[in-house]
Amino acid sequence: MSETTTQIPDEKARIGAPSIPGFTEEGENLSPLNDSATSPLAGDSAKSHSHGGGEGVTDSSRAGRLTSFNVEDFPKLTGREEDWRFTPLKRIGGLHTAELTGKAPKVELTGSENVSLRTVAADDAIRGNAFTPDDRVSANSWKYSNGAQVLTIPANADDVKSVLRITGESLDPAAQHLIIVAEENSEAMVVIDHVGSAVLAQNIEFDVRQGARLRVVSLQAWESDAIHASSQQASVAKDATFKHIVVTFGGDLVRVNPSARFAGEHAEIELYGLYFADAGQHLEHRLFVDHAVPNCKSNVLYKGALQGKNAHTVWVGDVLIRKAAVGTDSYEANRNLVLTDGTRADSVPNLEIETGLIDGAGHASTTGRFDDEHLFYLMARGIDEKTARRLVVRGFLNEIVQQIGDEQLQERLTDTIEEELATTTL
């Protein structure tokens, strides 16, 4: 099992102002790299960051990523782009090129009565408050989305639980836009449950306002023929808490891109993920945490299991700590458990730091097979090898399941894990 961490050899590798050679309160001194015309850090890539329409530097650092509401601002994809090099474009159902005029999945709301779901027109001012397309697929979805459906959690609401059931009923390429607004000082859990069959380019924006506490579970439980590319972006205001949990089991190709940006001090972001890939599945998760303001905390943990020939998972984690984000505390990790031969797990943690005046930051990635010591411990106590291996997998994934905080949904996911394990010869 291999691991990459930033600096210090403990499990939670930390780096801060006292421990980063070459850092000052102005950030890292990249000279003389930035003076070189051939350096990827030189020229336009070194310019100040922006998130306006049609701005940014294609394929530079995540800080300079192109963003635009116009799909034509994004070059046609070749598969060689950094953001797409792991994604099999031939299997993405034309979501990057097609006119997304198919029938969008049906949206049904259940749960607490004190929330509202309404449909707004494509030109409504609420659309785009917390979202700007940052790749060609999300921009294509923006172009073809026929308005948006808006779930609003009222200010000061407490103990709200809502389920948005997204049911796909067509394999014609389609676009969809969802908006979830957590108003000031509200507390809520929202489950976005994707089922059925679809070829879907989906944009979801989360507007987490001052003092709000929003927990979101995005569950991809599609049928085996589904193709799903979902860009999920959150703006997290002062003193707010945003907890986002991705669970991906179903679908032929699923690519979920969660992004969370701090918009006010003393906020907290937690991003968790669980995925289980079977033979032939491509499950990809690319996330971005943008520390743009001081004194905020973020924590990222994704765990995945793979089994079967050509099961492929991709995890790319980008954390940006901008120059203004003094007092940041951030950590990200990805863990992958390989259950059979013939699988592939790509894991790329990225950490960009523009100031040394932080409380700490770090990242880690591991990919490997079963821990022989764990198996030996269980088998030495009379547990047969097959059962022992299943216990190890359950324990490995259960850390994420427990983050959901809803007993009924946790039982459903535990049953799904058991069904997955029943299909393999561990």
Briefly characterize the structure.
By secondary structure, the chain is mostly beta strands. It has helices at 136-144, 372-379, 385-401, 407-422, and strands at residues 2-5, 23-24, 27-28, 106-111, 116-120, 148-153, 160-182, 187-208, 213-220, 227-236, 241-248, 253-262, 268-277, 282-291, 297-306, 312-321, 329-338, 344-353, 360-368.
Could you explain the architecture of this structure?
With 426 residues, this protein is mainly β. It is built from four helices and 19 strands. The chain has helices spanning 136-144, 372-379, 385-401, 407-422, and strands at 2-5, 23-24, 27-28, 106-111, 116-120, 148-153, 160-182, 187-208, 213-220, 227-236, 241-248, 253-262, 268-277, 282-291, 297-306, 312-321, 329-338, 344-353, 360-368. The protein has a 17-stranded mixed beta sheet that branches. β2 (23-24) and β3 form a beta hairpin.
